[in-house]
Amino acid sequence: MAQIPFPTPAPQSALQGVRNALPGTRNLQRLGLALILPIGLLILWQLVVNAGVYGRGQLPAPIDVWRAAEQLWNSGALVNHIQISVERVIRGFGIGSLIAVAIALVVGLSPIAGYLIDPTVQAFRAIPSLAWVPLFVLWMGIGEQPKITLIAVGAFFPVYANLVSGIRQIDRKLIEAADAYGYRRIAMAWEVILPASLPSLMTGLRLGLAQAWLFLVAAELIGASTGLGFLLVDGQNSGRADVIVLSIILLAILGKVTDVILQKLEGYLLRWTDTVKV
């Protein structure tokens, strides 16, 4: 009897072998690629300063920004500004996201609620962040409450829009099967709808977090005496371009760090999905 030939596995490339043997190699490669553009921008920045395109009062050299950071760090002010801003973003993002998830589930589960709520929410979504500031000051004064509320507004819309879109793209057969097994509104939302739309929710959370950092600067215009938004405006008022650039860099770094944390959480929660892993 003739033997059935079995396919032999393709030989593993040397690069794949190294990656399997050293799990940290791929992470180092990613980090190296991610640093290419920032380093290039830093070099370009220094070249523009050396060429005298702008004066040092308009565009400080990287070393000037570093010295400004050192000065604020040694005085303890920099740590305080960072801590206050991070706390405001976390609180506003948390409140805005929870409200967005609750309303999106109602809209996604009920067509009538969608007709009633969604058009108004989409209309409010087009309002610029600074347009809310005078109204919140009139309603809540100049304390922490209007700042947190404004950040929550910024986080709300991306989370809501992405989750509603994810719910509406769920396979109808999945809903019908869950209904046949006796799942009703709350159980359906928690055990079927939310897990099925989790990829869209995580995308919305990451976009909402980015929006929270954007709205932070507008929020810290409301009678703030601390925070990176205040530091940015204070640098403008005092003519300190080095402080302005430092504030922008810190906002970018903190925004990226918090996004990476959410990205890691997304990877953990969606580890069951059969998608391309980059």
Structural descriptors:
278 residues, mainly alpha, MetI-like fold, 12 helices, 78% helix
What does this 3D model show about the protein?
By secondary structure, this protein is mostly helical. It has one domain (59-269): Orthogonal Bundle (MetI-like fold), CATH 1.10.3720.10. It has 12 helices and no strands. It has helices spanning 14-21, 24-51, 62-75, 77-109, 111-125, 129-140, 144-168, 172-180, 185-196, 198-219, 228-237, 241-269. It is globular, with a radius of gyration of 25 Å.
Strand and helix layout:
Elements: H1 14-21, H2 24-51, H3 62-75, H4 77-109, H5 111-125, H6 129-140, H7 144-168, H8 172-180, H9 185-196, H10 198-219, H11 228-237, H12 241-269
Helix pairs in contact: 3-12, 4-5, 4-7, 4-10, 4-11, 6-7, 7-10, 10-11, 10-12, 11-12
Q: Roughly what is the average pLDDT, rounded to an integer? A: 84
N-to-C span: 46 Å
- The structural domain count equals 1
Which sheet architecture does the biggest sheet show?
none
Describe this structure in a few short sentences:
The chain is mainly α and 278 residues long. Helix content is 78%, strand content 0%. The chain has one domain: MetI-like fold, CATH 1.10.3720.10.
